[in-house]
Write a structure and sequence with these properties.
about 50% strand
Length: about 120
Amino acid sequence: QVQLVESGGGLVQAGGSLRLSCAASGRTFSSYGMGWFRQAPGKERDCVAAINWSGASTYYANSVKGRFTISRDNAKNTVYLQMNSLKLEDTAVYYCAADDAGRLTSRIYEYDYWGQGTQVTVSS
């Protein structure tokens, strides 16, 4: 069992940056694959970035490639999402999720644990 708590969301102007953090409880964080998902009103929850257990492999959705960076610090039980050059369409609730198989995956159904989400709002 792992509990995930996101932080770092907020209101930012278009072109600005935010860094989201997701702190995990439990001693086995380093074995989990981690993902960041987002959900805008009326839309499905989609994966924007993922990282495998070691941090050696990452995935990015096409819409965020070159702007977002996922990373993890297993010593701190934390995964990060650095978001640069933010656009209006990045506005959503952002969730972190953990896959106890340690995979690099963007498939929502392969994630076992979820945080409560943090709101990111990009204004013009």
